[in-house]
Structures are given as structure tokens and as C-alpha cells.
Design a protein that fits this description.
Shape: globular
Radius of gyration: 23 Å
Strand order of the largest sheet: 1-25-24-23-19-20
Number of helices: 7
Structural class: alpha+beta
Strand content: 25-35%
CATH superfamily of the largest domain: Oxidoreductase, molybdopterin-binding domain
Bound molecules: the ligand Nc1nc2c(c(=O)[nH]1)N[C@H]1C(S)=C(S)[C@@H](COP(=O)(O)O)O[C@H]1N2, molybdenum atom
């Protein structure tokens, strides 16, 4: 089988080798040393009975957390959103990536959600913000946050994925890092008001077929949304994971279109205008369209199609040694629920059905796992998701055949991790 190794050819990018792994090792060493000197006992001290008892079991701990808002253990300080110096590192356009390699379960901690801003983070005073709903409506409406919160609300778990997630793997692999290949993805519990209820309130005129959604940030980001989605499962959310939205996620209100490309989920939402046709805004013409080999571009490719990835092992999570290991991963689909995930350890020749960890939710991340006896030899690990509509996650070569090499967005191809005999994982692409 021909394999193509991670390549930087033609991209002009440098490929840092497992940056997270190196950092994590360094951190663990220094963290241990600092901890040991602080409590004044040998590093052999542990909580196992019969061994030297460590300081944390012999002395009173600190009282309640010193700050009113808790933070993770200092030994987890390496779990961070990360950015790339060359990739939109400016306020005009910035991106940070979710550390999926450290995510336990389906909920992304709020402070670790990837960010994508086209004009920086708007710092909005909710007292001075309102949402205007106008255009082809019977009665235009202005809604403050307080007024929005008077509507009946729902809480749903949904993933959010940037259409550009996977761009660092297309057409060629560039990074040995799950965080950078798949980290424009997050999943949380969103609380807000079904847009349908608000549209009922204003009264939709017959000719209305599209809605223009506009943000209050410096980019005034706008996208045209078909009215069917607005009446289906669209939400105006004001909270995530049990607290009000973070500024970087669109405080005080954002549009949430479950399963649809991140850019349509307008943050800092200030305006919804109903019209009879799309507006062809910048973010749906110059960008967020997919240029095909024929020279034609696909427009309004809203749905984030079925995808999965093995999160452990991965470049940041090497295997400690041969023997029985757990292969863990995440699967999701913008079409609905995940039905099945298959795992291969031989580059897609043979597949085994993985176990899904329920409850399997609609347009949400879903965990899967498979136990495997690793004999210590090189292996090609892959996962393939299938959703309830029967959609099967494509291989990279299937995707390349249709999309060619100029299309940037919507890379939902099967990921291949090469497991080397030393337990380390490399990002590879099969020919
Ligand atoms: N107003 C506004 N909305 C926006 C953006 C923006 O820059 N401005 N970025 C979009 C893009 S491209 C994505 S992928 C998601 C990212 O959401 P997050 O930052 O909460 O992860 O928000 C979308 N909504
Ligand atoms: Mo995006």
C-alpha cells in the first residue's frame, strides 16, 4: 500500500513536530518537581497505603477556592486553546483551536471552545444591545436580552464546527496534531429560544423565503439563511453549558443553526431581516463557497457532513506500550444522529464496529470506543462514521475525486493515524 507522509511541499508552512506532546512532557516533569519541593517529600510518596504519605494527605488543604470562579488543577495547565502564528493571528481575523486530545466526554468546556472571529471579540453591554427583526414581517420587533429571556426556552446539546475545519489536512497533511487537524470543533449545551417562536411573534409575510442574519461585531458578519431552517431547529441562544455566553462565543446572543457550518451561527446577533431571496454577502460568495475542478463553485453548502476521528491514540496521545488498549474517538453529523462507527487498524481494509457511548444525540458529538490488543507493530488507525440517514463518511481519495484540490471547506474525510512501533502517532494520508 502506498502511503504519503505528512508533507509541507508547496504550502510554505513549517511543520512543528508534535508540539503539544513535547510541551506536555516538559510540563509534567516540571510540574512534578515543583509539587515535590512544595510539599517537602520524596517524589516516591503516593496515596497508596504502605508507601510514604504525601503532603496533600498529611496537611490541611487550602480553604474554598480563592477565586469565586474555579479553574482546573495546575497539573492540567497544558490543556489550552492554541493558535498558529501564520493563520489569522491578527485581530482582523483570528482562530484558536479546541484541544480535542484532552476532551473527556462530549461536552467541550466553555473556556476551551475554538474561536473564529472576523473582526475581533465584540465587548457588548447587554443594556445597550437589542436584536431587530424586520423586513417581510407583519410587525417588526426589537428584543433586548431581558425580553428574549421571557420567551419559552429550550436547552439542546449540539456540536459547532467551522466549515474550514480540516483545511490543514487538505489537500495534504501539514500537522502532527489532532488539535490542529480537527480542533475547529466543539460541542456544548446551548440554551435559548426557538427562532420559530420569535418569527410567530412578528408574523412572516408570504413572500419571505430567506433571512439575513447580522452580527454587531466590527466585521458585521452577515449570512443569508433559508426560512425553512429558521422554522425548523434554529435557536437564538444566550447561554451555554449552564452560564451566559462567553464574549468570544457571541455574548449576549447568537444564532445557533444545529449541524450547519460555523459561519452561519452569527455571534453578537443584532439583526434578522426577512426577504424573498439571498443577499449574496461576502461570506457566501468570496468565501465559504467550494471551488470545484470544473471551475464552478458550490454555494450555500450549509450542512456539516458526517465525520469522525480517533482522539486517543492521536499525535498528542501516544500509546504507552503494547497489549490491551482502548481506541477512543468522537463522531458527529449535521444530518442527525450517529448510527454506527467502524474502526480499522489496517488502513481501511478490515473494519470492526465500535461501541457507541449513549445517549446518542441529534447533531451532537457522540463518543465511540473499541478495545484492541496491540502487538507492538506499525498500524494504520482509522474511524468511519455512518449516520441515521445512511450517509457514510468518505475516504480522502473519494473526497479528492469530487472536490479536486482547490476547495478549502468541508473536509470530512476519514483520518488516518499511523501508529509506529514506539507508540507514537503520525498524521498520514493514504494514496
Ligand atoms: N458576528 C460574527 N459571527 C460569527 C463569526 C464572526 O466573526 N462574527 N465567525 C463565524 C465563524 S467563521 C465560525 S466558525 C463560528 C465560530 O464560533 P465560535 O467562535 O463560538 O467557536 O462563528 C461564526 N459567527
Ligand atoms: Mo468558520
Amino acid at each position: 500500500m502506498k502511503k504519503r507522509l505528512p508533507s509541507t511541499s508547496g504550502s510554505g508552512l513549517e511543520k512543528p513536530l508534535k508540539p503539544d506532546l513535547k510541551k506536555r512532557r516538559l510540563f509534567l516533569q516540571s510540574g512534578l518537581a515543583a509539587g515535590a519541593s512544595l510539599i517537602g517529600v520524596s517524589t516516591e510518596a503516593s496515596t497508596v497505603p504502605g508507601k510514604l504519605v504525601p503532603g496533600w494527605s498529611r496537611h490541611l488543604g487550602a480553604g474554598v477556592a480563592s477565586s469565586g470562579y474555579g479553574i482546573p488543577s495546575r497539573f492540567e495547565a497544558d490543556v489550552q486553546r492554541r493558535t498558529l502564528d501564520w493563520l489569522h493571528a491578527r485581530r482582523e481575523a483570528s482562530i484558536s483551536f479546541t484541544p480535542l486530545q484532552s476532551q473527556q466526554g462530549i461536552i467541550t468546556p466553555t473556556g476551551l471552545m475554538f474561536e473564529r472571529h472576523h473582526g475581533g471579540i465584540a465587548d457588548i453591554d447587554p443594556e445597550r444591545h437589542y436584536l431587530l427583526i424586520h423586513g417581510l414581517v407583519k410587525q417588526p420587533l426589537k428584543l433586548t436580552l431581558t425580553e428574549l429571556m421571557r420567551f419559552p426556552s429550550v436547552s439542546h446539546i449540539h456540536f459547532l464546527e467551522c466549515a474550514a475545519n480540516g483545511v490543514l489536512n487538505y489537500p495534504a497533511a501539514q500537522y502532527n496534531s489532532l488539535q490542529f487537524t480537527h480542533g475547529m470543533l466543539s460541542c456544548c449545551e446551548w440554551t435559548g429560544v426557538p427562532l420559530r417562536l420569535i418569527l410567530n411573534e412578528v408574523g412572516i409575510r408570504k413572500k419571505a423565503k430567506w433571512i439575513l442574519a447580522e452580527g454587531a461585531d466590527a466585521a458585521a458578519l452577515t449570512r443569508s439563511i433559508p426560512i425553512d431552517k429558521a422554522l425548523d431547529d434554529a435557536l437564538i441562544v444566550y447561554a451555554q453549558n449552564g452560564e451566559m455566553l462567553r464574549p468570544e462565543q457571541g455574548y449576549p446572543m447568537r444564532l445557533l443553526l444545529p449541524g450547519w457550518e460555523g459561519v452561519t451561527n452569527i455571534k453578537w446577533l443584532r439583526r434578522l431581516e426577512l426577504g424573498d431571496q439571498p443577499w449574496d454577502t461576502r461570506e457566501e460568495t468570496a468565501t465559504y463557497t467550494d471551488l470545484l475542478p470544473t471551475g464552478k463553485a458550490r454555494q450555500f453548502t450549509f450542512v456539516m457532513e458526517t465525520k469522525s476521528v480517533i482522539t486517543s491514540p492521536c499525535p498528542e496521545n501516544p500509546l504507552p506500550g503494547k497489549g490491551r488498549v482502548a481506541i477512543n474517538g468522537l463522531a458527529w453529523s449535521g444530518y442527525g444522529r450517529i448510527k454506527r462507527v467502524d474502526v480499522s487498524v489496517d488502513g481501511g481494509r478490515n473494519w470492526q464496529t465500535a461501541r457507541l457511548h449513549g445517549p446518542v444525540q441529534n447533531k451532537s458529538l457522540t463518543r465511540f470506543s473499541m478495545e484492541w490488543d496491540w502487538n507492538g507493530q506499525t498500524a494504520l488507525l482509522q474511524s468511519r462514521a455512518i449516520d441515521e440517514t445512511g450517509y457514510v463518511q468518505p475516504t480522502l481519495s473519494e473526497l479528492r475525486k469530487i472536490r479536486g484540490s482547490r476547495s478549502l471547506y468541508h473536509n470530512n474525510a476519514i483520518q488516518t493515524w499511523r501508529l509506529n512501533s514506539n507508540g507514537e502517532i503520525e498524521n498520514v494520508q493514504l494514496a
